[in-house]
Amino acid sequence: MNKEELLKKFGKNVKIERIKKDYTQEQLAEKMGVFGNYIGHIERGKANMSLGKILELAKHLDTDISNLLNFKD
pLDDT tens across 40-63, in order? Predict the structure, then answer.
């Protein structure tokens, strides 16, 4: 798996968890204190988050970080 594939899989996991919580991208971005389009970039695999931000994202989505970092097919 290369970096691009990893970011896309991570983004897909973020989108799944966000939809489970019935958040829009803008609502999640507001909770995190980031620009609205940032969540879209993450979900499309165009943004590379730090581990600290991933942990923060998991907390805002009320999910275990392992759900976001699960890259199995």
Answer: 999 999 999 999 999 999 999 999
